[in-house]
Amino acid sequence: MTRSIRYSTLSLCLAALAAGPAQAAGDYPTSALADYVLGCMRSNGQTRQALERCSCSIDVIASIIPYERYEAAETFKQMAQTTGEASGLFRESAPAKTAGAELKRAQAEADIRCF
Q: 99 exposed, middle or buried (CB, 10 Å; 0-12, 13-18, 19+)?
């Protein structure tokens, strides 16, 4: 290998390292991506095809909704399933309804594109 090729390869590697780690789905943490894919696969089968479709689905959702709003919508959704008086706030409040509607729209788009 010539010296100029080695320097070019080294330069490319250093540039890639300087850029930092790649962001797979925007600013979504890996654990959120994995939770979504695992839940989706439980609903759609434990197959390679389900893995690919579920991975596609969360990527589409991440391209539509910033992580902070996704996290809020998921929190409202989970808290709405609890029992007691306070759970009504998580189902019936304006922020809960807005967050839920936004998440449903993103999931519908993901279903169209991926399933």
A: buried
Instruction: Please give the chain's pLDDT, 115 residues, in tens.
Output: 444 433 333 333 333 333 333 344 679 999 999 999 999 999 999 999 999 999 999 999 999 999 999 999 999 999 999 988 888 889 899 999 999 999 999 999 999 999 9
Sign of the torsion angle spanned by Cα atoms 23, 26, 31, 35: negative
For the chain, which residues make up each domain, given as ranges?
A: 27-114
CB 51 within 8 A of CB 41: yes
92, HSE (Cβ side, Cα atoms, 13 Å): 5
Which distant-in-sequence residues (6+ apart) come within 8 Å of 18 by Cβ? Answer: none
Kindly report the length of the chain: 115
Residue 84 DSSP symbol: S
Work out the angle at residue 24's Cα, subtended by the Cα atoms of residues 39 and 110, and round it to the nearest 5 degrees.
Answer: 50
Q: What is the pTM of this model?
A: 0.75
